[in-house]
Queue: 4 jobs
Job 1
Amino acid sequence: MNPLVTASDLMDELAGDRPPLLLDVRWQLGGPPGRPMYEAGHLPGAVYVDLDTELAGPAGAAGRHPLPELPTFEAAMRGAGVDRDRRVVAYDGGQGWAAARAWWLLRWAGHPSVRVLDGGLPAWTAQGGALTTDVPAVAEGDFVPEPGAVPLLEADDAAALARRGVLLDARAAERYRGEVEPIDPIGGHIPGAVSAPTAENVAADGRFLPAARLAERFAGLGVTEATEVGVYCGSGVSAAHQVLALAAVGVPAALYVGSWSEWSASGDRPVATGPQPG
């Protein structure tokens, strides 16, 4: 199944007999909360989901956006109306990171049909889609998480994968090189990781590049059909976007959720700097 859906196709599906459930996951790193944006206008029928409290656990030794506790995640998804047999579409403000995090978590937890609105809310409005301030009343869903449906990396797994496969660093290139580090305690990258900024997955309008161009990009980074691929970023959010881009071209990839925020916090893991994997 294509993990992306266009605004025009989503409009058709919402007008059908079995419309998908919409999750509004607007979020900005260090920015204002997403709920006021949701309340100011969202796709009709969409339910707001908070990334920091419902799609992640409290920041700590496991990183800035570790996995949420399973009961917390289950309660949030059921409260949003998520059913196992109903399709889900997540969207955000256009960057795609937060929607990809929701997509990845639901896939990891065993939901069989989750997609991301390509281009997010801006793509919807550009297509002529309406917004509403009405907050829908939703019946509690029946979704029960069954973790492990897609691969997950711990720190040691990521280090080992960098040696035997391709570990992609989804952060900006200057953070990978260690030239700047605005958030975490030390700059640089996991030894062996390859720089692959998430921003290069999309066009200027925030939509993903065509599949052929994405495939060409990843091939240039050393990804082939036989390659074992892993991805990390700063805290496991933008890396989910990279996993989504890979899925769009048929390449499965494992996510290191703790990412650099966990790796760099311990103080005893090796760090590489400069433009080369090291």
Job 2
Amino acid sequence: MTKENNLQSNLKIRPLSPVGKGLGIAAGDSLKQPLVGEIAAQGWNLLHEDVSLPVAVLSESRLQHNLQWMKDFIASYGLKLAPHGKTTMSPALFQRQLDAGAWGITLATAPQVQAAYEFGVRRVILANQLVGRANMAIISRLLQDPDFECYVIVDSAANVEQLGQFFAQTGQRLNLLLELGVAGGRTGVRDAATRAAVLETIARYPQALALRGVEVYEGVLNDEAAIREFLRLALRDLMTLEAHGQLAQGPVILTGAGSAWFDLVAEEWAGASLGDARVLDIILRPGCYLTHDVGIYKASEARIQACNPIARAMHSSLLPALQLWAYVQSIPEPGLVILGLGKRDAAFDAGLPVPALHFRPHNKGRPGAEKPAPAPADWQLTKMMDQHAFMQVPAGADLQVGDMLALDISHPCLTFDKWRQLLVVDDNYTVIDAVETFF
């Protein structure tokens, strides 16, 4: 067993948190507390009420579908994939992505990189500036492992100077990517003077810093023409750096693509080359494809399916794989239903959760259902508090206290970070696995 596989196996022997939410009864029993790898043996079934609600669940079949879909899409363009791990911060899911062919994992902070490393991830793009001595020290410690590969983005001479001084003292050489930005956007070099200052400072630390390529985040733009021009600018800039001998030896990296516009990045950069003597790795970084959603990324998927020839030829699309289940907690007045789920459980920054399925358990004294039924379109969440969701329904809607609802979400990133463990279920809602998060 390799070191990486051994670290991944350590995830399976971790005990499920007895104080966590969304677990079965055995998880709270110190005599029966299951390990993550033993969860399938518990025989929990969501519809049998073996699991405490609210609960966040992942569909195994849909996870597998999304992994294969992105693998096929990326392969069709001859590109590489480093999915953004901050979406899930789940090393178990990182491993699934790596097993499906991902080149590496993208992360946003030094502690996130450290968490990924502890569970076997050995190639990382830190899609953020590395600022501060303690953060630099984390990366420096990881670089003591010769198998660990890390790329950090820079956009200012001041940051490069700090990195150069720090890593010159450690005797290590840090891989850098020049980040390009746009006016009014987030980070990234905006003008020629700043770019020149960054490159000049990198050149002063040849033993400590190695410029390996160019990085962009096109998600700060929302116009297709502007995005395409930005991507072309990045490619031209990379060619200029190469022509002027400003890139370090070894493979060169050109990377971009959040979860909304990855198709445009693939179209614009596919086939780019620096010549036969130079390896160019073009790396896309979407993270939300793994679980997808019914909100902001559903809209992006609809655009991709309509406009991208590769996606159309695949005759399938990404599927929402993350759902939250909650009980009907109270029906205090006609037309108002209170669900036992709130801001502590679900993202709400990009739209409230959407009722997707309704299920009535087989409880004594009232008829139940065999399987969940689609929730009517006129059942709608109107607001959420910390632990409660307000759902508007027509007067007389067939709902009872104790009914179960599955809700789809928009923006999986901010739902994942509200759960320390999520359950993986098969198509019959039997729990077959669990994944932990490390935010």
Job 3
Amino acid sequence: MRTDRIFARLDREPEPPKIVIPRMSRHRVILFSATMAFYVAIVVAVLASSWLVELDWKVMLFRPYEQWPQLHAFLDYFVVLGQRGPTAVMVAAWLGWRSWRQHTLRPLLALGASLLLLNITVGAVKLGLGRLGPHYATQIGSAELFAGGDIFPSGHTANAVVTWGILAYLATTPRARRWLSVISAMVALGVGATTVYLGTHWVSDVLLGWAAGLLILLALPWCEPVIARAEALILMLRAKWRAHGTAAPALPVPAAALPAMFAQRGAGEDDAPVREPVGAASGSRPAGVRGPARPPHAGPRPERPPVPPAASRRPQHSERAPRPAPARPLGG
């Protein structure tokens, strides 16, 4: 995706429009604490091989994909809405347009921060618990933990919650936030149920994936100061890069490098036609011009007869008679 148009839009106005940024309110803190408690309870229930693990096996042995085979073709495509690559591209395209309209990089940076948190938190738990999926289970009734797997929690489910929920988080009007919250919740619920239908995840995987994605969305207001500093840093670096990329001013050319007849020209005579200096035919040089007036290879200067300074160039006519004086009248 090209970013030059986004930066061009940012340069049109000196300040972005006023956007209400969600804060970590008391209500949000309560929801975050409750979701964290649910998250821990799911992990403990799986580690203890409690009733939740029994439910996982019952659903797995039920094989929903065999009970409703007519849904298999459609759900194979629908589950793509939980894959990180395609969903990140679609959501990033939409948020890029939002950044262009709102004159700010915050939507794209918020998406990047949420995906970074998703990769760190969900990836660490996946690798740490190492649970195997239903298709690779080795012992009926076992939690299949620490066996080299990477499905607990469900990455498809958590990714669907984050990538589609970020649209509701960045909504600018209450009505748009409500509608986007409902749509993103339906997509996340559908993706999680689809993974159970296809037999790629346990039920507990999906429950933990929902909780993991919701925790990231609820914790995003804590990341807003970092997002604001990152935006300011990106714009500052871009301004320095543009200033560094501009052409440097032309350095003054020393007079010694110019031809002799142009060394003493004024600043306003650059475009005037060049005139031959007085005395150029006789080999004389203008005043103030350094260097020889004639090239060294021109040979010796020819001798010219001296002209007397007081002599007149007009010939004398000695035989011409003088003009008579006018006659004066006789008085009397």
Job 4
Amino acid sequence: MAPALRISVVLCTCDGQAYLAEQLSTLLTQSRLPDEVIIGDDDSTDGTWTIVQDFAVLARTRGVTVQAVRRPRRLGYVANFSASLAQSSGDLVFLCDQDDAWHPDKIATLAARFLADPALTFLHSDARLVTADGADMGCGLFEALELSAIERGLIDGGEALRVYLRRNIATGATAAFRRELLARALPVPSAWVHDAWIATLAAATGKVDFIDDPLIDYRQHDGNQIGMRSRTWRTRLAEFRMPRGDELRAAVARIDALDERLDTEGAPDGVQNDIDATRRHLERRLSIGTRAPLFRVPSVAWEWLTGAYTRFATGTRTALRDLLRKG
């Protein structure tokens, strides 16, 4: 019988008193309790720290170790997660947000998959989208993300990097990963959001998978750092005219940070080829945006005919955006 994997939950808080107590309570109603909970509070000014302290007392009575640190100055959620992750010691690390609610078998379900597959590096699940009051929105996270059959097939076929270089489909609150990944992942580069960085680095250096079952209630409210809602047709139409220059430059910066981190160990040829090809596509799209719409047609047509829009972006939708966007 394989030994049990030690579980760390890493949670970052900041002025989260509205929903934090509920989230913390779901950590202690897990069918498989965590072994330790790391909480980094980012200089909260409301009652968050009191809720954290009360939780720590209760958790310790259940045999759960709690390390809670209150930052003397605000770091921002990415730097706070980076510092908090460095404190974790479990074999598996679970990311946790302050405003969601975990389903009772979340830890047990993900841990079982890691036990069954020693090669698995990073795993994430679907989530049920709920309102601020916890009401079901009738939409799952993967549905809102429009996770495609092609993307699913790439991940199942061991080509997850092609998916995660294109866009992040792994929400941190649904994710867990092996401790070994932290040695490569920390510190989180400033160009990246922590969950996208960890998922992409895992796809570049190991095996990534997902679970279709929703294992958390992912609360949507005005205070979300990063939220997810199903888009309406009006939203989709408006997106075609939105400027994309800053977004593309940020994507190039993320690729450069990934390349630099992997360069310290030497990326496999296939991984390096994917990174280089993605960068070239992004740089060509940046160049397209500097031209008048009529003069974009040949370059957009070339990216389309060579399959670049399908491989590195969202296909027809991205091609149309490049034709119509303002910059």
